[in-house]
Amino acid sequence: MEVHIERVSSLVGFDLDLIDHTFDISARVAEPYDESLSCTLIRTEPVSPQRIKTYPREDEDSIKGSDLASSLILVDLDTDGHLRGYLRASKAWNNMVFLDEIIIDRPCRQLGIARLLMASLQAWTIQVGLSAIKVETQDTNVGANSFYRSLAFSFGGYDKFMYYGIEACRDETALYWYWFSQSPG
């Protein structure tokens, strides 16, 4: 399968409803996070009940895109032009890029699409002279945490109350990962 990453100015016109962006929650990263995330295999603990998580769709303004100098939207399309995955990122106030969203259609995961989208994001970060990429994920998304670590992202901290106002994920903890365009030391 060939992966072709393309930069677009907007996601308007792509049928985002055809993408299955759910993931299974059967475990969570175990506390203390610093120790669990530094192990060869991320330490986890089971979640009960196991469940499937879905994120709400982005609002129309989010997918329209914005100034090409301050944001990046990348897509991967199959040979028929159907969307298999996309990434949205934007420049943040602190000279970093914030990964707003990366979505890969469930049947297309583990094919290298996310890795190539992230490599393009890393190249763009360097090209526009920014210092780092910041990613927020959850302790219940063990696969995403493993993925960011495999890309040489560094665990930067957590927020136990980030999702407190959302009943369905009140017990989840936000975990923050950083990729540095130059060594932070």
Please explain how this structure is put together.
InterPro entries: Acyl_CoA_acyltransferase, GNAT_dom, Streptothricin_AcTrfase. This is N-acetyltransferase domain-containing protein. Residues 25-176 form the N-acetyltransferase domain. One of its GO terms (molecular function) is acyltransferase activity, transferring groups other than amino-acyl groups. The protein is an alpha+beta fold and 185 residues long. It has one domain (5-180): Gcn5-related N-acetyltransferase (GNAT) (Aminopeptidase). It is built from 4 helices and 9 strands. The longest helix is centred in the middle third of the chain and has 15 residues, at 113-127. It is globular, with a radius of gyration of 16 Å.
